[in-house]
Amino acid sequence: MAITASYPFIDFARHFVRNRAAVLGLVLLFLLVALALAAPSLFPRNPLRIVGRPEVWPFVNPRFPLGTDSLGRDIASMVAYGARTTLMIGLFASLTATIIGVTVGATAAYRGGWVDEVLMRFTELFQTIPNIIFVLTIVSILGQKIENITIAVGLVTWTPIARLTRAEFLSLRDRDFVQACRAMGMGDLRIVWGEILPNALPPVIVLWSLVVASAILFESAVSFLGLGDPNVASWGGLIGDGRTLIRTAWYICAVPGIVIMLTVLALNLVGDGLNDALNPKLRDR
Amino acid sequence: MPALLEIEDLEVSLFTRVGVLKAIDGMSLSIDAGETVAIVGESGCGKSLTALAIMGLLPEPPARIIGGNIRLAGRDIATLPEAQMQRVRGREIAMIFQDPMTALNPVLTVGYQLAEGVRRHNPMPRQDAMDKAVELLRRVRIPDAERRLDDYPHQLSGGMNQRVAIAMAIACEPKVLIADEPTTALDVTIQAQIIDLMKDLQASLGMALIIITHDLGVVAEIADRVVVMYAGRKVEEAPVEELFARPLHPYTRGLLGATASALLQRGGRLAEIAGSVPPLSELPPGCAFSNRCNDAFDRCRAQKPRLIAAARGRSVACFAVENEEDRRVAAVGA
Amino acid sequence: MRRILLRRLVQIVPLLLGVIVMNFVLIQLAPGSFLDVMTAEQQISDPAMIEKLRVVYGVDQPAVVQLGKYILSVLQLDFGFSYRQNAPVFDVIVAALPATVILMLASISVAIIVGVTAGVIASVKVNTFWDNLVSIAAVFFFAAPTFWLGIMLTILFSVRLGWLPVGGMRTIGGTHGPVADALDVAHHLLLPALSLGLFYAATYVRVMRASMLEVFRLDFVRTARAKGLSRARVVVVHVLRNAMLPIVTLVGLQLGTVLGGSVVIEAVFSWPGIGSLMLDSVMSRNFPVVLGVLVLSSLVVAVANTAVDLAYLKLDPRIRAR
Fold first, then answer.
1. What is the value of ipTM here, to two decimals?
2. How do beta strands B36-40 and B225-230 pair?
């Protein structure tokens, strides 16, 4: 018989660590963050500067470990700086989506009635509009800047968070401990913030990891299409640049794609691990 | 002449994460055409597993037959390969289950499911199978049978669904019908109807009927012989009137004392059997009932009692009863 | 059944209005006036034309009136005029729609066929080598960006092996007869549909596998086996039909993203659909078309959602009763 931990966080951490795939994902993410943070020291010069001959293959010239692109820019440097872009988009876009989603979902569930109805229609609206098209529209109208892209991506990824938050709130709203708080005269906002939200958070956190992954995929698609911020190094943009050279220099497309794939994979593994660790019922499947 | 269905020393083990559990330990049973045998015992005693073992439907990952054999009309069916067992199921041995509301596929019509069973063993054009399906529905006394063909299971009541399940089971006129708690999930009034129906069908088809139940009222109503199971073993077997008149095994005595009718007879409280069934992972080395038995003595706790013949057609596995019988015989003989 | 259909179609109206209002808001957010946006870069110098547009869009009047006029013109299917293609925006979009719909249908078909089959195999052979293989493949196709997958597949099958064309919808130079034409399109359709479809297949595999495993445990499966039905029949006729229901729901929920995904894939494969049109319009700042695409694509998604809901009703008789 195992001794039950007195700190739920330690218990959770222990279960998470047992999942080797999730740990692998976490390691990959740490590497990504490390790369992003180390980029300026590893590659002190602007990644978008032309530094060598174009179309040099990887592993050929030690100065350019991952080769150069169609213009002669260092791919390794662009990958490293691209990690910063990716992280930023991942974090800020998902943060935007989470704030909107949690607010909409919580309000809809807590207020109920016509507020719920209206907010759900609102959510449905954003679910019906095709995501990429919406992002492209916003970018085309507001301009190709990284901030606009971040907002646009946030605006298309909030709906699953809203639905989940609403579902969680609905199941928690009528529970005894919330009734007790109401009977004590606690204000609504305080109940929502202090009592319901902390209990509703775990599944939202799991979803958040997936939202980060989709934000990264959206940004890479936008950059790939040539609508990204031209002053910023981006993995998607690199793939877009390499498109015309697939016959001769296909590594320009392959390398950043593999990196994106590993990042998304890592996020999914971590998300699964979080889900398993937070969901004891399903642990023994 | 060999019995129609013969189970000999059946042993089934469950391979679980907490270890290997003996779910059925040396169960033997034989039944002839036209006979009705009731298997009684509380939940977890192995009666359902016995039925599934006969059908070859044991849940494979945990459960496995590790000993004994099962013979149908002399032919060993326990070791039949799956493809051949599929020809036995439904055609020679059929089974109906406890919960009629979940026993039928919710997205297929009643008619389709009936015809499917018919055509599986007797290939025939769809229309003929549908006609047969109507006939079967009438046979199980479902009114307005033709219209019921296009109904979905959720549109019918529990009792009707159970009738449909029975119709599906007898579609190919099997030699043996196994009914696992067929009335437990039904209203009391419907229960009587279903039991009546099963009696009639058995009489007209000449089937052997194995009915698994924990309801002694049903046993009294329909059974010729009763088998009492406890913790995976058969502990008593007797013709039905004799079991009720003179139960031998302490567990059986406890069961019969614990039924609602006892309230009326003894004018007092329900006699209850103290303690509870030990989990399969913690079975004692001796008799599994010893921790709850008033007549238990040392030998009971150390050794497992074997089945002994107690009278004609009766057997029981209990040292206390053995001793009692020995004494009687000695007294008579002397 | 028809009542439900009508009710769902009616529900689309407020949705559409919402999109149109959203459109309007976006236009207002754009730099320049409403008129500028609708005629941006179109080099309209004719004063009569400008005056006409001024009246049509109510440019000098309060925003609410502008909105009203905009809604009215949209409802009359007037999304403005595209000088780039020299045709009304509506016509331009409708002309590009079939190619995208073909791509969407093909991709969803690939996703369902591959996903369901792989999911069934994984569930029937659960915890064996095949199950693990399917899981690993699913993870790979889920994590890889669709456009990157498209490029990689192109490198393999078009550049290296030369089996499939690099892009486009038809072979330039034409084909003879409708059958040959259809085959030609199918030939060009294969890589794009695979690139887009395999991503969704990865999701469907997981869902299907879990759903099958759950249905396997239900009582009626035991009854079916007790009737003596073969394993294959039990799986295909009894288990599959029940296990597929969540997939249908999933397809419905993801229709919006499939349309979005086809936009990107169209760019990769030069597929002449809404996506290419959208991209071209964004690049050339052809706002009337961009906004028209937003509204019409949302309409397509809403209608497709309704179709999926109706399909679900047909598959699950339990819901019909309600």
1. 0.85
2. parallel
Question: Up-side HSE of residue C106: CA atoms within 13 Å toward CB?
Answer: 20
Same domain as C131, residue C110: yes
Domain that includes residue C188, residue range = 97-320
Among candidate residues C50, C72, C90, the one where a domain is terminated: C90
CATH number at residue C230: 1.10.3720.10
| pLDDT given at position A145 | 86
Do A139 and C282 count as a contact with CB atoms less than 8 A apart? yes
pLDDT, tens only, B45-66: 888 999 999 999 998 888 889 9
Residue type, A85: T
Q: C102 near C192, Cβ under 8 Å?
A: no
- Boundaries of every domain in chain B: 5-92+174-333, 105-171
- As for how many domains chain C has, the answer is 2
C305 → chain A, closest CA residue? A128
CB atoms within 10 A of CB A283: 12
Cα C240 to Cα A27, B61, C221, C235, distances in angstroms = 39, 21, 11, 6
- The residue-averaged pLDDT of A41-52 equals 82
Residue with token string 């290997």 = B20
Q: What would you report as the CA-atom Rg of chain B, rounded to the nearest whole angstrom?
A: 21
Interface of C with A in 136-155 (CB under 8 A): 139-140, 142-145, 147-148, 151-152, 154-155
pLDDT in tens, C50-90: 676 666 666 666 777 777 777 787 778 877 777 778 888 88
Query: Is domain B5-92+174-333 annotated with CATH 3.40.50.2000?
Result: no
What tens digit of pLDDT does each residue of B218-271 get? 999 899 999 999 988 999 999 999 988 888 888 888 888 765 555 455 555 556
CB contact under 8 Å between C318 and B88, yes or no, is no
The verdict on C238 and C106 lying in the same domain is yes
Touching C: which chains, 3+ CB pairs < 8 A? A, B
List, in sequence order, every residue forming a beta bridge with B25; answer none if it has no partner.
Answer: B11
Do the beta carbons of residue B315 and residue B309 sit within 8 Å? yes
The CB density around residue B120, as the number of other CB atoms within 10 Å, is: 22
pLDDT in tens, C207-223: 999 899 889 989 999 99
For all residues of chain A together, what is the average pLDDT? 83
- For A171, C192, C302, the CA distances from C102, given in Å and listed in that order, are 42, 11, 17
- Give buried/exposed letters for C76-115 (b at 16+ CB in 10 A, else e): eeebbbbebbeebbbebbeebbebbbbbbebbbebbbebb
Indicate whether C8 belongs to any domain. Answer: no
Residues C243 and C261 in one domain: yes
Q: Residue A48 and residue A42: Cα distance in Å, rounded?
A: 15
User: Inter-axis angle of helices C287-315 and C89-124, to 10 degrees?
Assistant: 40
Q: What is the pLDDT of residue A279?
A: 67
pLDDT exceeds 50 at position A4? no
Highest-pLDDT range among A244-253, B123-132, B316-325: B123-132
Q: How confident is the model at residue B105 (pLDDT cuts 50, 70, 90)?
A: very high
Cα–Cα distances (Å) from A37 to A34, A78, A180, C222, in that order, read 5, 14, 47, 58
Report the residue from B86, B105, B155 with minimal CB separation from C228.
B86
Instruction: Choose, out of C220, C234, C236, the residue to mutate when testing the contact with B (most B CBs < 10 Å).
Output: C220
Looking at the fold, whether C310 and C219 belong to one and the same domain comes out as yes
